[in-house]
Design brief:
Elements: E1 10-11, E2 26-27, E3 36-37, E4 53-54, E5 60-62, H1 78-81, E6 85-87, E7 95-97, E8 103-105, E9 111-112, E10 121-122
Antiparallel strand pairs: 1-2, 3-4, 5-6, 7-8, 9-10
Length: 125
């Protein structure tokens, strides 16, 4: 008997042996709703659901962090936290959502904010 890694998008809450029929039958809940992404979030591995984040660049916020997010989190596990993404258009024109789903000032000319960063940084040519 040996352990095989679950295929991408599936997991099994406990490790299973290669001869078990029910191996990897849990499907990840990430990307099942509009506005969800999985990039730069933990993939969960073989025994846990992968984490998702919302596409804040397109105006989506994580419902679980909509009112408070003291740790500036981006990623969440939908099967555990029962969260989804919702479109939010409440940022004023001179602001944008950052990865912690907060309205922050847009970066000045010749500066940018990488998706994984909270702060604006200068663009080096």
């Amino acid at each position: 008997m040996y352990f095989e890694k679950c295929p991408h998008g599936f997991y099994q809450p406990r490790n299973g042996l290669s001869n078990e029929i029910n191996k990897c039958k849990m499907k990840s809940k990430c990307s099942e709703t509009i506005g969800q992404l999985t990039s730069w979030c933990p993939d969960g591995g073989t025994t846990e659901d992968q984490q998702c984040r919302c596409d804040f660049k397109r105006g989506y916020i994580a419902n679980i962090y909509a009112f408070q997010n003291p740790l500036n989190k981006s990623c969440f596990t939908p099967s555990v936290e029962n969260s989804a993404c919702s479109f939010d258009d409440t940022c004023p024109e001179h602001k944008e959502l950052d990865r912690a789903y907060r309205c922050v000032p847009k970066c000045p000319k010749d500066w940018h904010r990488q998706p994984e960063d909270l702060e604006c940084k200068p663009i080096f040519m």
